[in-house]
TrEMBL record:
Organism placement in taxonomy: Bacteria, Bacillati, Bacillota, Clostridia, Lachnospirales
CDD domains in the cross-refs: Sortase_B
Protein name, UniProt field: Class B sortase
Entry's transmembrane regions: 12-33
GO molecular function annotation: hydrolase activity
Gene3D superfamilies to which the protein is assigned, alphabetical: Sortase (2.40.260.10)
Coiled coil: none
UniProt cross-references to InterPro entries, sorted A to Z: Sortase, Sortase_dom-sf, SrtB
Statement: the UniProt record of this protein carries the keyword Cell membrane: no
Keyword Acetylation assigned: no
Length: 267
């Protein structure tokens, strides 16, 4: 019986295919390593920054009903400013893992992919809108942070405040938001949360309003479109805070949590 002749070039194509598979594997492995490096590096960096923050004894256990809430953390802004002079504040939401410095640049792109220490990373930093007053005296102070899968930055907002994403979200437990600046301790209370489309709901990012009536109308609209009803009702004489993070539903999707100022205390 005659032996079948091997096709010329079959070995070449087999080797080429093998090389391509190896290259694809190497590229995928490199990307996975890059993601891990950014996640791990960012987590380590922000954990180290917390050495400049001291959590005080649980203020809720010590105060009487008539007393105002006491700020739960003390921040060393002098030390933070040596690391990054763009630091403007610190945000703290007890029990959520949201415990980060807030920076502000001349635009809203600088810290999208740059950490507090200035390292290039997709985790970025928590930053205040460039158009807002750095002391959080704007009618609507807007703070941005990435929605990371491992819960870093604003990755826990949807878990704790989005009842459509997480039906068990215990949003009432996390209503108090603290913003600490070098001069003041500001307490906010959540009054609304929802998912928006930045193209259709761009008015959400209004910082200053033409009149008190416009501001009151904005607040009314925020309450009406909220995922749930809360006892906290914002007053048009008080400033508000808007936390904004991206969502996986669409490129234009954002999840926002809005809170009204309930006290502002000078240090």
């Amino acid at each position: 019986m005659a032996k079948k002749k091997k096709r010329k070039g079959s070995g070449f194509f087999s080797n080429l295919l093998l090389i391509l598979c190896i290259l694809i594997f190497c590229v995928a492995a490199w990307k996975l390593w890059g993601y891990y490096r950014h996640y791990h590096g960012g987590k380590k960096e922000y954990e180290q920054l917390r050495q400049y923050v001291e959590e005080n004894a649980d203020p809720d256990e010590q105060k009487t009903k008539k007393e105002k809430d006491k700020c739960p953390v003390t921040v060393d802004f002098e030390a933070l400013a040596k690391v990054n002079p763009d630091v403007k504040a610190w945000i703290y939401i007890k029990g959520t893992g949201i415990n980060y410095p807030i920076v502000q640049a001349a635009d809203n792109t600088t810290y999208l992919h740059r950490t507090f220490e200035g390292k290039d990373s997709f985790i970025g930093a928590i930053f205040l809108d460039a158009g807002c007053e750095p002391d959080f005296s704007s009618e609507n102070s807007i703070v941005y942070g990435h929605n990371l899968k491992n819960g870093q930055m604003f990755g826990m907002l949807k878990k704790h405040y989005d009842t459509e994403y997480n039906p068990d979200a215990d949003y009432k437990k996390y209503q108090k938001i603290w913003i600490i600046t070098p001069e003041e301790e500001i307490e906010y209370k959540v009054f609304a949360a929802r998912e928006i489309d930045v193209n259709e709901d761009s008015d959400v990012y209004t910082i200053a309003f033409a009149s008190e009536e416009d501001y009151a109308s904005y607040l009314k609209n925020s309450i009406e479109k909220a995922l749930y009803s809360l006892k906290t009702k914002p007053d048009s004489e008080e400033d508000i805070l808007t936390l904004s993070t991206c969502t996986s539903s669409s490129e234009a999707g954002r999840f926002i949590v809005q809170a009204t100022q309930i006290q502002r205390t000078a240090k």
